[in-house]
Structure prediction request, 656 residues.
Amino acid sequence: MGGVLQDSVNAWWPEAILSAGALLVILTTGRRAALTITWVALMAAAAALWRSPVPPPTDVFYGFITCDRFSAAFRWIALGTTALVALMACASRREVEQSRRGEYLGLLLFIAVGLMLMAEANHLLMAYLSMEMVSLSSYLLVGFADQRRSAEAALKYLLFGALCSALMLFGMSLLFGLTGALSFGELRQASYGIAGAALPAALVAGALMLAGLAFKISMVPFHQWTPDAYEGAPIPVTALLSVGPKAAGLALLIRVLEALGPLGERLLPLLLVLTVVTMTFGNLVALVQTNVKRLLAYSTIGQVGYLLIGLVAATAKGREALLVYLAAYLFMNLGVFACALAVFHDTGSESLEAFRGLAQRAPGLSAVCAIFLLSLAGVPPLFGFVGKFLLFSSALQEGWGWVAVAAALNSAVALYYYANLIRLMYFAAPLQATAVRPAMGLRVALAVCAGATLVLGLWPAGVVEWTSRISGTLL
Amino acid sequence: MAAFVLFALVILTGAVWVVTLRNLFRAALSLGLVLFGVAGVFLLLEAEFLAFAQILVYVGAILTLLVFAIMLTARAPGAQPAATSPPTKYGPISPGTFGGGASRQQGPAALAAAAVFVLLTWATWRLPWPAMPADHTATLPALGQRLVTAWVLPFEVISLVFVAVITGAVAIAAPRRGRQN
Prediction:
């Protein structure tokens, strides 16, 4: 027994370090101490993750979680997202009051732990707990801005989230009643035995469970909270919500679909239709937005639609494409949010108009912003193009020509609103003449994101090989 | 069977009251009725520990907290939000906070809830549920032992979630300088 626990803790150091860091940060009051602890915890977690054995010699924590290569990839994504968001959070002093900075950074680290757990979950209880850990901390962080709007957004997010959690729990309880299994492995075995009168009930249970996950990745029809929560939250939190829970939610969705076995395969047509609806809805509504956070909220819904193609394809190729695009999405989307944060710091405005003539006021910032937007639109030779190309070709490989066509049409629509922002930056007259000076933390975040988007776009071979090794091990 | 019908009626009546009563204080007390009913169902299922935990934690602690919150936030205990007052966009949180109060959204909400109910009934009607093995009764010492061995990870993660939620909630609710409104 001692051996299992020891091996488990050895595989689980990154999360343990982040949790300890979060508990310590909450206790601090000074800005310097909070930042130091946050960064020490993040660095130590990265080192521990680098050194952690993959796969570990025994079942981790008696099979409640699994630390295979697949979850390792998502743990890196969660850690990278948190580090970049922490850079943004350090740079933005205006949005969150000084006295609450400790709790702010602490909740950020708790979300990182939750995201990692979501990617590792191998048991219905752990799936639910990790999702609640991310959700509850997110509701709170959305309410952290010093505005009435922020509190309203947090409340809406909470109510919608509580409903979706309840639906998911109901689905889980039905599934447990039908199969008597809680861990994903047992569930998969039991799912092959479900037939006859139990089949409709199991399908309803599966669909209800998907509702909770669809809420996390803001898939239509569980997307309604997205624009409001994004608009009300402090910008670094919005950036975190747009990447972290989406990646971890997709990872958990892949595992849950796998655990549902033949039931999951029966639910795939429904998911495929929702995929196309999600991307089309997100991109069309994004066209008419005037607030940059709302625009990016609908753009996120559109991007989740693209990502879902790789998930629904349910092949090694599709998962590989999903992972590559997630890596690209992490850098380009966080980059755009860093740009929005720099503009917000300078002008105090979140409207698209604030980007007017940015090229004359901050040539460097506009250039990287244009890179991120073009990458999101899928323009070669940027990293976003590589991921999108792989995703679309995985749809074609499955023989879903119409999905690929719909996705291509969506990309054209998306290019319009991304290019519109670039037009505002380069071809519109600026409202003021002063130069924009982003804070140091933001510059680092922007440089990392822009570098990754450019370099990995030009030389994607390494990433693609890495992801193909991971997706090959899962099936 | 008779006991189950009784508890089910208690739960359903309480649940309907929770969503229909305009008085928040009475709605909270109706929630207590629901929680008692659920504890009764647990007793019927021979899950005594769960039933007592349900009463201790939910009725004893959470409901009390809820009642306190309502009494402290409302101007007077049992204050009724005026049904005729126009909804204010950023007004205090009352049943009318979200666009026009209950009247406009009650219809669609009831319809959606009824649809879920019909779907679930259709799916689970006359379903042969596999029976649990008879030796599945858990004693308290065994339960405690498993919580710190096999189930240690969920146990610890739950405590992390609680810490995160409590500190975050205090940070949000604490008075701050320069707060608007």
Remarks:
- DSSP finds 20 helices and no strands in chain A.
